[in-house]
Amino acid sequence: METQISSLISAREVAFQKPQLYTDIFHNLLPFIYNQNTTLQTLVIDFLKESFVDEKLDKELQLQLADELLQPLSYLISSKSHLELPRAPSPANFVKIIQLTNHIYPIIFKKCLSSPQMQDLESKWDQLQSLRDNLIQKFGTAYPLLPLNPESDASRSTRSNITLVMFITNVLSILSIAPPKDPRAARARKLKNTPEDLSIVSIPSDHKFLNMTRLEVEGRQILDVLFDALNDSRIINSPLFCVITNRLLTLFKKRPGLVSVKLFDFMIAYESMNKEDPLFESNQLKMRLIRRFNDRILKVMIGYCLNKSFVKDTKLLKRFQNKFTYYQGMFEDQRKRGLLKPDSHEIKREEKRAEFKKKKITGNESLEEQLQNNPSESPLFYYNSSPITPDLSYSSLYSLISPNNKLASFNMSELPQNILIDMIAYSLQNTTTRKLVKGLEIISDRFQNVMKFQQNYTISQDQDIQIANVPDSVKREDDKDLQDDYNPDLVYELPLPNYMTFKDQKKQLLKIISQFMELAQLDYKQPILSDVSNDDSLNGVALSSWKENTWLVFLTRLATRGLCDAQHTNEDGTVENLNDLVRDAIFTYFTADIRGRIDVVIDWLNEEWICEVARNRKEDNEVPDTPVYNAWGSKVLDNIIPFMENSDRKIFLRLLSELPSLNEQMVEKIKSICLDPIRYKFGFVSLQFLIMFRPPLKDIAINLFRRLYQETDLDDLKAECLSYLKKYCPGEYT
């Protein structure tokens, strides 16, 4: 590479030192334009710029070689993405490409006028027109930079757009009718060596492919490009405004019939205070200065037109004088107030913008009202709305904010999962449907572009793009052995996944349970997602939002339904169930705070009972046995009863009332409370509750009272039992 660079530099020096060798060197260097190495491209572009734009090449050779630049220049600006070949040129090289096109346009036009019969000249003219249109389409964009949004792109490539304005006005000078020149001034023009004024007037009526009327129409269409930029509802930056207005004024002096009406109308009607700020622009001081400078530029233009007596119509002249006087008064007020201080109109504008910035778009406003009231919150615009990504990273694919924003370099994967969930949920709740859909459309377009480019290119580790379809002539010799083994009839089958042993399954399940238990420790003050269904029936949606106990629903459904058949018989004949791991985790979580987590165990045991009954239901509709529920229900009572105190009566009664089923063994466990000298009244109240509110358990509770009466030696306990027996067995006890 270094050898090539040094050779190019030496060849360029020789070409200018020995003009007789220039043509050969020119043809040898021109193919390097198609090389993807930017250093080599830049050297060749600089060589061409020195030759043509800087006039180091004589006129005859320029006329001879100019049309050979059309295809290379068109190639350099043909890129639509940074992911495809050829890549977009650098901003500096793009400016040189515009300057080269600007220089060769009149040369080729003159060549077409003088030698219309020359071979392939018509196709060269078509190439020139295509190159011209391609460049003009890039005016007002960020090209060659990656586009972000239409509002900010023009100010990001100001230098390129300024050079394009100069090119457009030079093209307009050719594609318009030149006014007749005073023959008396011909000698003066010759003495001053004034450049030839080319225009479509010089085209003969019988020219082979140039048509004056068609080219004049094209010129007026190109002129509209500049006036559309000036008359846009958004204010444009001062450097671009200055260049456009000055070049139009220069063009007016050469082609008054083309520009005069539109230019004078613009100068009278322009009012910077009526222009809107660009979207995403929050620097109000910057916008005030842009308005100040634009007004001063226009005042200078109006004064120049008045001094040179360009305005002949008396009514129009009066309007120009009034506008000039208006600007003088406005600038005097600004001088007294201070250039940087806002006037009354600007204060109202900034207050209105601040007011709407505080409000959120409700979705009830019309689209026009949303754009007018709060454009930065518009669902149609994101700062980075480009359908093209600068690289193939996930951040480039999904980022919709400015690359200069500090959040663009922030690694979101470092945040805890619960914070990410909260951020995503809050964002979804506080955005409009239009804005969400627009963002998804942008990401979808980017993904489609990336997939399209990946079909033709492979990306290396250093992000260089290489052509995937390598010709056979440059394949490696090692590939020959691989080609011999290729069988087109062989059907490829994906390999089966590795078999997971029961031990591996337990290990993975424990990881899942651990993650859910971490979620259980989080504090959810409000649902993360809004409800999607209000159906409270049995067939309704079990989880419509992520709430405080949502993790419990997942685990209970996993234990009772998802893993109901996950069993394994060990070598010693014992049977292990994966769902018991989930049940044990829920039970352990409950025992850590039996008073504060009574809801957890009630929901879990109800789910256990319902699923077991549904799974084991018989044809006669009798309630089947529920051994799993009975075992874990008994285990819960065994662990909760020793810790119940008299103050926990409401908690325990709630458990007895909301458990779906209680058998005799479970009720028998209350006996230990009744035998406690301190808690016996608590136990008796629990048995009375079962008699009154759970009739199927009445006989079991009364029998427990009988046994307590017969077995106890404590007088207080015996008297308490007798009082309940007299109440519920009046014929048996008196």
From TrEMBL:
The keyword Nucleus applies. Its main location: nucleus. GO terms for biological process: mRNA processing. It comes from the Eukaryota. Residues 96-325 form the Symplekin/Pta1 N-terminal domain. Signal peptide: none annotated. Keywords: mRNA processing, Nucleus. One of its GO terms (cellular component) is mRNA cleavage and polyadenylation specificity factor complex. It is found in: Nucleus. This is Subunit of holo-CPF, a multiprotein complex and functional homolog of mammalian CPSF. It comes from Komagataella phaffii (strain GS115 / ATCC 20864).
